[in-house]
Design goal:
7% strand, 53% helix, Four Helix Bundle (Hemerythrin (Met), subunit A), alpha+beta
Length: 261
């Protein structure tokens, strides 16, 4: 199985896991507030559906995507919220069906992207595999918000390895986003996987190092938990700085979540 096929299979599985959380909800359940301020369960699904549709534009209609990106640049703060609000006004059954169809189409179309092609996006252009990884990350992150709103605790899976790898690969982006010099050397990242194994990134002898649970790094990178609530350990000043600014999603720096203590 190629890297793209593997990520697409995991993207489909992540979508199915979230689908299982919302499929049986009564209509009023879609209005349940989530940890994202002002966003209900419906807003979360609407946002994922909207982003899947825009990702399809990247594959099939680059000119249309350029128009959407220009709109986002003109309204960087409110653009995402407005799109989610519009989708959340749909009847729940209609929204669910639209999201299902959109995510299935995206998986199918990404599978056909020719090797070497870069897809335009709100951050740097990316390969089909990277686009699929980004969609998996968002599906997982917004799925966490939905699960928390519904009082559910989803089990971490091996699919988190895609999110962790994306967090490591976007290290330089996080530094540039905060107008900070990008560290010249790679970091060593040692993470405890959900199954008890270890996921390692970077050279073993690196002076800057981060260790801890893979889930914790993913939660921090997706800004779903405050660092004070996580068991991540940084060795070296650059690694320490990174954990304070880490961001795995495109766009301006997010506010993050407050500490629970």
């Amino acid at each position: 199985m190629s890297t793209l096929q593997l990520v697409l299979a995991d993207l489909a599985a992540e979508g199915a896991a979230l689908d299982a959380l919302v499929a049986g909800l009564a209509e009023d359940g879609w209005a349940t507030p989530t940890p994202a301020a002002g966003w209900s369960v419906a807003h979360q699904i609407a946002h994922l559906h909207w982003t899947d549709r825009v990702a399809l534009l990247a594959v099939d209609q680059p000119a249309a995507l350029a128009e959407v990106m220009a709109q986002a640049q003109a309204n960087p703060v409110g653009f995402v919220d407005e799109a989610a609000e519009e989708g959340a006004r749909l009847p729940p059954g209609e929204l669910l069906a639209a999201w299902r169809g959109g995510r299935e189409r995206l998986v199918a179309r990404l599978a056909t992207v020719e090797p070497g092609r870069k897809l335009a996006w709100f951050g740097p252009p990316m390969s089909a595999a990277s686009m699929a990884t980004a969609r998996l990350m968002e599906t997982w992150a917004h799925g966490l918000d939905v699960a928390e709103a519904l009082g559910r605790a989803p089990e971490p899976t091996a699919r988190l390895q895609h999110v962790a790898r994306l967090a490591v690969r976007t290290r330089d982006f996080a530094f540039r986003l905060h107008d900070l010099p990008v560290p010249a050397e790679e970091f060593r990242i040692e993470l405890a996987a959900p199954d008890g194994s270890r996921w390692d990134f970077g050279p073993a002898g690196a002076r800057q190092k981060v260790t801890g649970p893979a889930l914790d790094l993913c939660l921090l990178a997706a800004q779903r938990r405050h660092r004070d609530d996580l068991a991540l350990v940084a060795t070296g000043p650059d690694a320490e700085t990174w954990l304070g600014i880490i961001q795995v999603f495109a766009g301006p720096p997010g506010p993050g979540r407050p500490a629970t203590a």
